[in-house]
Amino acid sequence: MEIIRYADIHPEPWRNGGGVTRELASHPKAASAQDGAWDWRVSIADVSKAGDFSVFPGMERVITIIEGELLLLTVDGSEHPLEKYRPFRFSGEAASGATLPTGNIRDLNVIARAGAFKGYTSIVEISKKRAHPVFEGQLAVLLEGKATVAPGTAVEEESDGDSPAPSAVEPVELSRYDAVVGSDIRSPEISGRGFIAVISIDHVESHA
Question: By the 8 A CB rule, do 113 and 52 touch?
Fold first, then answer.
């Protein structure tokens, strides 16, 4: 079970000085955030002043405000008011910028290479009564509230009849903006009270 601790991520200042970005995950991992060599990236950004967004040729973006009230996003001349917890998809190639009518905001960004991967963001309210599983190809980020995560039940294929039953594992407490990496083997299960963002990165099949 893999947990990415937000507190351990080094912030990278923007070139225009308008904010900082913390990268939660990317593929391939060795790719540089500066040259955009990755096929997809999930990050959290603090935006402290109005300005232009970076252009990502060949990419598609999904942005979600996770702290603060409102971001006015302009994409190719069209203005889009983005409210908290409402994901918005747009082209990474588009000329885009933002203003902050209600003050500083924090956003969750999913960027994926168009035609190869497709990124999705869903906001889910979690419950103590029913744990939310995180599957392979997903990342779950605690946005607010209190939550714990524990490995789920092993799938049947993993049992050969001779293996002992999986031992009970104490749930691990999550801090705000910690991310849980999904798996199809004993999928991590999150429970508690609050909201999580579930990011799914799907591979797009080529029909060429």
Answer: no
